[in-house]
Design brief:
Blueprint lengths: L7 H15 L2 H15 L16 H6 L1 H19 L4 H18 L5 H18 L1 H24 L3
Length: 154
């Protein structure tokens, strides 16, 4: 059964939209993080090795930023592949949410920030339709992550 409030058609177009940006997972994942660190500098405090980096150029070149950008995109890709299987979807989202809530203590508002930046990037690169078709997916992901945080006592 679907976790999602997405119809089959919406699911297909969301996957199509995601595929366009996931083709360049490392570059696009890096671009998303660099934009987040630049526009929301407080988010850098979670990453001790990014703290001293002020220029976007420096961040873009960093293996750690690139590595984490790719990791973020890979995690979302796993979720996108399992949008039509709630058990598999939650099997990916739950441990990720728990780790960020309990070990890393990342404020859950940062998931929304990342999702919004991904949507911006989609719109810039591929237009408004691409963004619109992925918006519901980001809402689902953020809702599930927030629920996990609540269960962990946030």
């Amino acid at each position: 059964s679907s976790t999602m409030s997405l119809s089959e058609a919406e699911l297909q177009s969301a996957r199509g939209a995601w595929e366009k940006i996931f083709v360049d997972a490392e570059d696009n994942g890096t671009a998303v993080l660099v934009r987040m660190f630049t526009e929301h500098p407080d988010t850098k405090s979670y990453f001790t090795h990014f703290k001293g980096m002020d220029s976007a150029e420096e961040m873009k070149q960093s293996d750690q930023v690139r590595g984490h950008g790719k990791k973020v995109f890979s995690a979302i890709n796993d979720m996108v592949q399992h949008l039509d299987n709630s058990e598999a979807f939650l099997g990916i989202v739950t441990p990720l949410g728990k780790k960020h809530a309990t070990q890393l203590k990342i404020d859950p508002k940062n998931f929304r920030i990342i999702c919004d930046i991904i949507l911006q990037l989609m719109e810039e690169k591929f237009g408004g339709d691409c963004k619109a078709s992925f918006e519901k997916v980001t809402n689902e992901i953020c809702t599930h992550l927030n629920n996990i945080y609540k269960e962990e006592g946030w």
